[in-house]
Amino acid sequence: MSIDQLKATISKKGGLSQANRFNVMFTPPQGSLLNSDPATLIGGLASGGGLSNIVNDPRDISLLAESVNLPSSQITTLDHIAERQSVKIPYAVIQEEVTMTFLLTNDYYIKNLFDKWGQSIIDLETYRVAYKKDIVTDVVIQQLNKQNIPIYGVKLENAFPTTIGGVALSNETADTPNKLTVTFSYDKYIVEDGLTSAISGAGAALGL
């Protein structure tokens, strides 16, 4: 196999996919297009954000997502002795959690979003746990091509944050943007083609 053959194969298939071409879309269960949270509005005004925070732009989450991993899965097996030889028998699938890292803006938009979501799952005053149906949402992750068109996607059904990471503050990291890492659990993920993922992504962004 020659370099020319490899280049021809890559060209025939539209080039190599790029790790920095992706979208993440979801709306928290309590989210809406109209921002009715006074603390967020006041924080936005104090940080110089103006009145733009009155309306939540569904694209903000995707733009602030610095990294995300497509979910992995593991097929679990049992050893079965058949005709003097041990063979593997599949019996279940384990789908790994998904971790995302977000950039934090001066109004702490992403941090406030996940703090509010986490508090809706477990009330820290009463320690009451909410019904699962009230705290989950679908999360859509897309791989994009160079024209920013989805070519592959996965939908995490009934996802919710299980780990909301800490934010490290230090005098030694001047001019370094703060970041927040969040880990999601979900019921299952569904693989989607580009068109189906585009439709799912629009629904996830609008909370539909």
Give a short summary of the structure.
The protein has 208 residues and is an alpha+beta fold. It has helices at residues 3-12, 38-46, 59-64, 109-121, 194-206; strands at residues 22-25, 65-68, 73-82, 85-95, 98-103, 137-144, 150-164, 179-185, 188-193. 21% of the residues are buried.
What does this structure look like?
With 208 residues, the chain is α+β, with helices and mostly antiparallel strands. It has one domain (16-206): Pnp Oxidase, Chain A. The protein has 5 helices and 9 strands, in the order αβααββββαββββα. Strands 1, 2, 5, 6, 7, 8 and 9 form a 7-stranded antiparallel beta sheet that branches. Strands 3-4 form a two-stranded antiparallel ribbon. Strand 6 (137-144) and strand 7 (150-164) form a beta hairpin. The mean pLDDT is 86.
Features:
alpha+beta, 5 helices, seven-stranded antiparallel beta sheet, Pnp Oxidase, Chain A, 25% helix, 208 residues
Helices and strands, in order, run as HEHHEEEEHEEEEH
Number of helices: 5
Q: Which class in CATH terms?
A: Mainly Beta
Question: Which structural category do the helix and sheet elements fall into?
Answer: alpha+beta
Q: According to CATH, what is the topology?
A: Pnp Oxidase, Chain A
Mean pLDDT: 86
Chart the SSEs and their pairings.
Layout: H1 3-12, E1 22-25, H2 38-46, H3 59-64, E2 65-68, E3 73-82, E4 85-95, E5 98-103, H4 109-121, E6 137-144, E7 150-164, E8 179-185, E9 188-193, H5 194-206
Antiparallel strand pairs: 1-6, 2-5, 3-4, 5-8, 6-7, 7-8, 7-9
